[in-house]
Each structure stands twice: as structure tokens, then as C-alpha cells.
Amino acid sequence: MINEQQVREILGQLQDPFLHRTLEETNGIVNVSIKEEKNHVSVKVAIAKTNTPEQLQLQMKIVEKLKEAGASTVGIRFEELPTEVLERFRGKANEAESRDILSPLSTVKVIAIASGKGGVGKSTVSVNLAVSLARLGKKVGLIDADIYGFSVPDMMGIEEMPTVKNDRIYPVERKGVKVISMGFFVENNAPIIWRGPMLGKVLDQFFRDVEWGDIDYLLLDLPPGTGDVALDVHQALPTSKEIIVTTPHPTAAFVAARAGAMAVQTNHEVLGVIENMAWYESKTGEREYVFGKGGGQKLAEELRTDLLGQIPLGQPDWDNEDFAPSIYEENHPTGKIYLDIAQKVINKLE
Ligand SMILES: Nc1ncnc2c1ncn2[C@@H]1O[C@H](COP(=O)(O)OP(=O)(O)OP(=O)(O)O)[C@@H](O)[C@H]1O
């Protein structure tokens, strides 16, 4: 007959598969109970990241070890370690661990940019926010995960392709931002008709096989809506945060609220809302609210978050020498609004 002390000793020597520390060191043994009459052991274990292949491996190992020690049957439940514990280990992570985006020890701040529907300017906002973070001295990566409607390479005026060396994909660097887009891997702009699981796999590959190097921020331009890809991101990167883009019309905000509600449901912090196409400013400085008014503020209140900024209607001044059609210059009034939003994001996360 196995007793609680023995169970704790056995579990205590096994390692958390992500933190590479024993469960004793991580305080990962949450609960042990034994039903003596049936010789049944049930344990609750906390690890850095649940619902992963690594969890399954650990589960098998626990069953094997406890049965070896005399248990007839074993029941296991897993939960995630509290954020404070993860923070403590993140502080001690080695370089490889802190740079691996999928590791719970990663120090890369991941921000997914979402919208309730297409065409609200999510990609425009993503590229300008990425460039603005870089202008503020941050090392930034951008994934164009809008797999159906990738537009980031065109918006940033990217003409090169990523390089592949030793099975690693090296992103294209543009305006200080490392960029990967589905567009790089599709010939002749062919439409993509993949569904759910395939999309998740592509994203996973962007996290795993792309050599992001040393980055502080990774922005993800998500497909519009509340679809599978957003869920995949939340699942793969539990610490990811979200920014929701909406237009000012109250009904647009209503649709966007669904995207935000999902983030809230899955315990993902919504960093804030950006209202795009907020107004048209005439040469005399008068504002015309072409698409309505107040949607961004309303959405922010609904999601109990902040309105990070409002972007007016307009186009960047095109620079023919360094053509990046959707990117505003730093000293353009809208470029300054993006810088201000980027600063707010930094203040929230650092
Ligand atoms: N503030 C703005 N003023 C004027 N045009 C804008 C503004 N923001 C975006 N646009 C334009 O609106 C169109 C849609 O923008 P964008 O592709 O960024 O949206 P999206 O939400 O990412 O769309 P989708 O998700 O469907 O790809 C583009 O032609 C873009 O140039």
C-alpha cells in the first residue's frame, strides 16, 4: 500500500516539462489523495502550460512511477501554475528559454490584434503600431496571421522574401520590424481555402520555425472575426494580450465586442481598443464624423479596458524613395497618434 508521503516523494522528483525544475522546486504538487480500500491514488499537479504534448508525457510518467510504487489505479488532474510563480522562474530563465516564444519562460510580449469584422483597418493599425514600437526603441516582430487576406507585405512595401537556412526561416526586416506573412509562402496571390486545423499549424510553424532572434514584442495581425485562429493563439500563447480594432459606428463596436468577449472568456487581457476611421479632418481643421461617433469608447467601456487612441481617416504621404504605402511618417499627425498609442502599450506592459 502506497502512502501520501511516498507519492509526494515520487512526484517531487519529476520535472515540470517547461520549467525544467522538479515539481518539488516549483511547488507543483497541489493535492494528493488516496482511497485505501481501492488502492487508488489521485493527484493534482500544476505545471507551466497545460493541454500540451509535454503534459501528456508527464502524465504517462506519473502513472508509471506510481504504479511501480504500488498504486493500483491513478487519477491525475492538471492546472497551470500561478502567474507569480511563472514570473519568478522567468526571471531566472536562460537566454534560449527566454527567446523561445512558445516557452512559458519567454520574455517576449505577444500582442494579438483582432477585430470583429473585416475591413476596419486591423492590418493598417498592426503595421503602424509595430513600426511605432520600433521607433520607440523596441525590438519588434510582426506576424501577418490574417491568412485569408494577408496584406502586410504590400502595406509595408516589402519586396524581398524571407531566407531559409538550416531549416530555419529568417523574417524580412522592414522599417525596424521583423515580418513574416502568409503572403510569402503563397504563389501568385492564390486564394487560401484552408480551414481550422491547418491554420493553427501554419501559425504554430510561425512560432516554432521562424528565427525571431532577440525581440521584445511580437505583434500578430489576426484574421477578422472570432474564429479558430484567435483561439489557437490563445491556446498556444497563454500570456498573449489583445488589442481590438473597431470603427466608430456603435454597431461596429457591437460586433467587435464579440472578439473582445472571447478574449475575456479565455482569460486574456485586452490591452485596449483602437478606434480607426474615427473622423475626417478638413483642411480647416474641422472634424466630420463620417462613420459615426463613440463606438471605440463604448467598446472599451464594455470590455472594461481603455480606448488607446483614435485614428482619423486619411492616407500617409507617400515617399517614392522608400515606398511603404500604409506607413505614416513619425512627424505626420497620424504618425504621432500611433507613437502615442505605442507608448501607452509600453507603459501597460513594462
Ligand atoms: N484610417 C484610415 N483612413 C483611410 N483608409 C483606411 C484607414 N485605415 C485603413 N484604411 C483602408 O481600409 C482598407 C482596409 O484596411 P485593412 O486592410 O487594414 O483592414 P483589415 O481590417 O485588416 O481588413 P481585413 O481584415 O479584411 O484584411 C485598406 O484599403 C486601408 O488602406
UniProtKB/TrEMBL annotation:
Keyword GTP-binding assigned: no
SUPFAM superfamilies: Fe-S cluster assembly (FSCA) domain-like (SSF117916), P-loop containing nucleoside triphosphate hydrolases (SSF52540)
Keywords on record: ATP-binding, Hydrolase, Iron, Iron-sulfur, Metal-binding, Nucleotide-binding
UniProt-listed InterPro entries: FSCA_dom_sf (IPR034904), Mrp-like_CS (IPR000808), Mrp/NBP35_ATP-bd (IPR019591), NUBPL-like (IPR044304), P-loop_NTPase (IPR027417), YlxH/NBP35 (IPR033756)
Residue numbers binding ATP: 116-123
Top-level taxon in the UniProt lineage: Bacteria
A single GO molecular function term of this UniProt record: 4 iron, 4 sulfur cluster binding
Pfam families from the UniProt entry: ParA
Gene Ontology BP annotations: iron-sulfur cluster assembly
Gene3D superfamilies attached to this UniProt entry: P-loop containing nucleotide triphosphate hydrolases
Function: Binds and transfers iron-sulfur (Fe-S) clusters to target apoproteins. Can hydrolyze ATP.
Quaternary assembly: Homodimer.
Family: Belongs to the Mrp/NBP35 ATP-binding proteins family.
Protein name per Swiss-Prot or TrEMBL: Iron-sulfur cluster carrier protein
Origin species: Ureibacillus thermosphaericus
